[in-house]
Amino acid sequence: MGTPTLTIDAVNGSLILIVDDIAANLSVLGELLHQSGYQVRIATSGRTALRHATQEPRPALILLDVMMPEMNGYQVLAALKQDLATRDIPVILLTALDNSRDEERGFQHGAADYIAKPIKPDVVLARVRSQLLASLAQNWLRDQNMMLETEVARRMEENERIQTVSIRALAHLAETRDPETGNHILRTQGYVQLLAIRLREHPRFAATLDEAYIRMLARSAPLHDIGKVGIPDSILQKPGKLTADEWVIMKTHSRLGSEAIDLAERDIDQPVEFLKLAKEVTHWHHERWDGKGYPDGLAEEAIPISARLMTLADVFDALISKRVYKDAMPAEEARAIIAAERGRQFDPDVTDAFLSGFAEFAAIAAKHMDSR
User: Fold this and answer.
1) What pLDDT, on a 0 to 100 scale, did the predictor assign at position 1?
2) 125, CA 20 to 30 Å: which among 4, 235, 258, 285?
3) What is the phi-psi region of residue 297: left when phi exceeds 0, alpha when psi lies from -120 to 50, beta otherwise?
4) Cα dihedral 278, 281, 282, 287 in deg (nearest 10)
5) Phi, psi angles (nearest 5°) of residue 157
């Protein structure tokens, strides 16, 4: 839908509502405006004016007398400004009261202009045209802004889709090296998001877990095991227990993943917030609350919140999933193991959020259950 052209001709034929309780005044103004190419609608009272102002087509401008019985012009103006359908219609007050106090009162009520009686035709026409052009320009700018906002929103949505697809592609690349993970990335993404939502009002987490952070965390979570692409198949897909040397190599996947993301981030001019979280969950999702995890042996609050959430999500899913080296564990058994690790492997409050919402986590697991 196009926007009006900003030219003087664009206001020709505009509909103007004239409000006055004196017929002679209506006749003079109506004839003046009609001869100047405007359409005219008249009202002889404030209540009638309010009704006419909402009728289609709506007036482009209202000339409103101040001194009227029942509802004076100020009362009519206040009612017009309170109604969403009429509040943007410019109003010019007409009155025989010619002093600065009355003029100021009119502007305080939202009048666009103020003309003293007896009217001067040239002044009226100039003020009318000026207000119509100003209103047209305002509407044009509003429409342009709406179009711009719509386009920006469309492009942001498109960029987010591209970003999501790219992340999933990278995550699935790691998954092809470790085929038994199945829907692991979907489940862990759901667990992390749910943990964050359940903790966003908690005093320890509220300052961090706002809506934007939770959205970025959920988006970055699928990359937590991207470093597995650097682990040899002989280790990654080994059906039995890893040797000490193999385990050392296996543990490097957290560093490999974060370093890969860091290298990618260096190719852009500005830091990307979700990549910061991606590096955190990739690098530290095997750290433990008691400091006995890897790769850096971080403990308690030194572990980023994103990684603390990812740790519990990853462990829960590993316990309930079948692997080449183990069978899947019932969810209730996994719940008991995580409860036992409260304050040891896992942040106590993160553990409590998981335990209190266990049914929701189990539902996510069931929704994205592996088909084999």
Assistant:
1) 41
2) 4
3) left
4) 160
5) -65, -40
- Give how far Cα 344 sits from Cα of 80, 196, 308, Å: 65, 20, 12
Q: What is the pLDDT of residues 278-320, one digit of tens each?
A: 889 999 999 999 999 999 999 999 999 999 999 999 999 999 9
Cα–Cα distances (Å) from 121 to 68, 114, 208, in that order, read 22, 14, 64
Q: Hey, what are 142's tokens?
A: 């509003």
Q: What is the pTM of this model?
A: 0.59
212, two tokens: 């934007």
Domains and CATH numbers, the chain: 8-147 (3.40.50.2300), 178-367 (1.10.3210.10)
Is the predicted pLDDT of residue 323 greater than 80, yes or no? no
- Assigned token pair, 195: 């943990």
The CA-CA-CA angle for residues 153, 141, 57, to 5°, reads 105
Do you find a cis peptide bond into 57, omega within 30 degrees of 0? yes
